[in-house]
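Appendix B. Raw example, untouched.
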Amino acid sequence: MKLMQELVDGGNSIIVTEHDPYVLSNCDYLIEMGPGGGSDGGTTIATGTPEDIRRNPESVIAPYLMVR
């Protein structure tokens, strides 16, 4: 997380594919895809800040996100 924050502080954009709630909770913007993986996925479920996602009743990951 420290390295990613240093890159962002330097004016860079970072795009990651991640499942770790700690990492997701520290992102500026999330795009949650699903509802499952592989052929069961591919639909946008929720978008926004981690706080936006936490308030979205359609989100699967909302209960796992941590408050910063």
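End of appendix B.
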